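Researcher: Here's a chain I'd like modeled. Treat it as a single chain, no partners, no ligands.
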Amino acid sequence: MMADSHRLPCTSRLLLSLAVGVMRTASSVAASGDAPPGKIAVIGAGIGGSSVAHFLQQHFGPHVQLDVYEKDTVGGRLATVTVNKQQYESGGASIHSLNLHMQDFVKLLGLKHRREVAGKSAVFSGEQFVLEETDWYLLNLFRLWWHYGMSFLRLQMWVEEVMEKFMRIYKYQAHGYSFSRLEELLHSLGGDAFVNTTQRSVAESLLEVGITQHFIDDVIVAILRASYGQSVLVPAFAGAMSLAGAQGNMWAVEGGNKLVCSGLLKLSKANIIQATVTAISLHNSEGKNFYQVHYEDEEGQGSSFYDIVVIATQLHDKKSNITFQNFDPPIAEFPGTFHTTITSIVHGYLNSSYFGFGDPKLFPFTSVLTTDSPALFFNSMDNIYPVNVSSTFRRKQPQEAAVWRVHSQRPLEKQELKMLFRSYYSVQVTEWQAYPSYESSKTLPPIVLQDNLYYLNSMEWAASSMEMAAVAAKNVALLAYNLWYHDLDKIDQKDLMHKVKTEL
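Model: Modeled as a single isolated chain. Structure tokens:
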């Protein structure tokens, strides 16, 4: 049943809704302390919101009513744009092979991996290419060794060590364990050292393991500019997640990554409410919290009551405009800002001479990363292919008109577009508040805002990706379930590796 299916005058509707909500909650509390929640609200229908709706339905069962509020389109930062009747990824584009939740979602929903179309990458300094990939793996390794010594091997070992510890989260979650604070979650994966990876920069961590400044300036900077649009001052944990993706084994969903979001919401049988949430009010009956979610849609203002609320949208940097009412003490504003990334999808002819290739036919690269140079006005650019790749598809030749995705810190000016492209048919620009500005805050935000009120997006302040959102969603769903049924032995447990081994 959709919330507020019939409308009353605003004041009468709110009074009636409040009375019904109090009676409903009071009766459910009186019936049983372990009665399942009647209604759960999820605010946001991106990968985090759709994942948590799926996991909540999985744990609490099919009888719980799930309402998912979304002011824009399902998918959030997973989005596509249309060029010549073909869709292209304009948001989150790639998924790592070790992302087990995303792998599970694709299998569960009957989706497919998109056919990979090979291409070569290079790093551009604004004057020349400082590193070029070839078709030969051994030659690529030799070039890395020749230019940077053992740095690339040390990098691989460091990233693998971080990822090996991170992968423990899947075992913990499979056994029903959850965490009420990000610090607890990270500590369970790798102790104090792992928590510290959110407090020190990736540059500092890499120098410590013997990676040269030269390698950091040429390669690490380029990767972080392409992924987060930020410098090597991002925290080591976020940096490691980004660098893991740069080592290959990436994939995407046939038809577009956003299909995961719509598929999970359909599977969970959630009610999708197209509305902007304006406020969350705290109420209490017989010592039990419940929440009134206020919203605005095309028909005006409305509200509904919920036993549990999960916020799967950004609260930082005043991005949400959600106010919190009746909270004592009040919910504090979180420090930190979000980083703006501009994505320009350009259909046109590459100006290869800008990169030092007078003959476009000789330009060999499909992906160009950049170093931190004042002369450069873009972070990266990729020759991209549609979300539906047929068996006969071939990538456009460099002298042909192709679709390029350009990431930059600000919208590209016409003169800058002319530097990158000889001519173009169309430019579609999307401004994303894509990632936290990691240098703007050294504190990790809370997961639990109040009893049965959770902030899922706190996870991206440790690292931001589709899989991190899915891990956060599973954690919040387990935490909500464990707290609702008072299973404290499944929350913030120490020495979990030993506990999990003894349970096997």
